[in-house]
Design a protein that fits this description.
By secondary structure, the protein is an alpha/beta fold. The mean pLDDT is 93.
């Protein structure tokens, strides 16, 4: 088993995932670039350097979860940090009363069911770490408190599929953290902020380098750090 810290980031071939991998690599982590496109994943790993390695992960293909778990077990013997970053939002701007069910199912398959099944597959490896960390990349749009407040500054971003999937991710964070409360593993949800990514768009006020900071902080928490929380940078957010 290697003494180097090992981190797996899903959706790490671009945007927030790639920047998260870069920042963790700079901290000395061996970063595993989870991506469904081999060429893009390999290119991302090469751009980071020798501390990065591409791992094929397609959030719609659970067979890739098992293969990734086997590779990590055989190569490193453990996993220190899992950053569940991959996510989609195809129903943004659509009214809950009109959104096609196919979009809801597609969103939950990736954002919730894929995330859950991958985490279950990798949990035995996280248990082998001295300080396992699970970061579920959520969104302020998953806050029930804010969605229920007409005055909350969410704009028109009140679609059920994406927001509902992130609310489900937050519930997974809370329940898994409770299950693991007597272990060294910490589980938290991260709100990156409104960031200039493919999903956030060019109008977003935050740069990618700042958007990755919350995930990196939660992936590297000390032993006395929080678990079962929802954070943006150092601030706790309302569920």
């Amino acid at each position: 088993m290697t003494h180097q810290k090992i981190a797996l980031i899903t959706g790490a071939n671009k945007g927030l995932g790639l920047e998260t991998a870069k920042q963790l690599s700079a901290l000395g982590y061996q970063v595993l670039i989870g991506a469904r496109n081999e060429a893009a994943g390999e290119a991302a790993a090469i751009s980071i350097g020798p501390n990065a390695h591409f791992v094929h992960l397609d959030m719609a293909l659970p067979a890739t979860f098992r293969a990734a778990a086997q590779f990590i077990a055989e190569t490193y013997g453990k996993l220190d940090a899992l950053i569940n970053n991959a996510g989609i939002g195809p129903d943004n701007g659509q009214k809950p009363s009109e959104v096609p069910m196919a979009l809801i199912r597609e969103t939950f398959e990736t954002n919730v069911f894929g995330l859950l099944e991958l985490t279950q597959a990798l949990l035995p490896l996280l248990r082998k770490s001295d300080a396992g960390r699970i970061v579920n990349v959520s969104s302020i749009l998953g806050s029930l408190s804010l969605n229920a407040d007409p005055s909350a500054q969410l704009g028109d971003w009140r679609s059920f599929g994406y927001n509902g999937s992130k609310a489900a991710v937050n519930m997974f964070t809370a329940t898994l953290a409770f299950e693991l409360k007597d272990t060294p593993i910490k589980v938290n949800s991260a709100h990156p902020g409104w960031v200039k990514t493919d999903l956030g768009g060019d109008a977003a006020p935050m740069e990618i380098v700042d958007g990755a900071k919350t995930s990196v902080r939660l992936a590297t928490l000390p032993a006395d750090g929080p678990t079962g929380g929802f954070f943006h940078l150092d601030d706790a957010l309302p569920w």
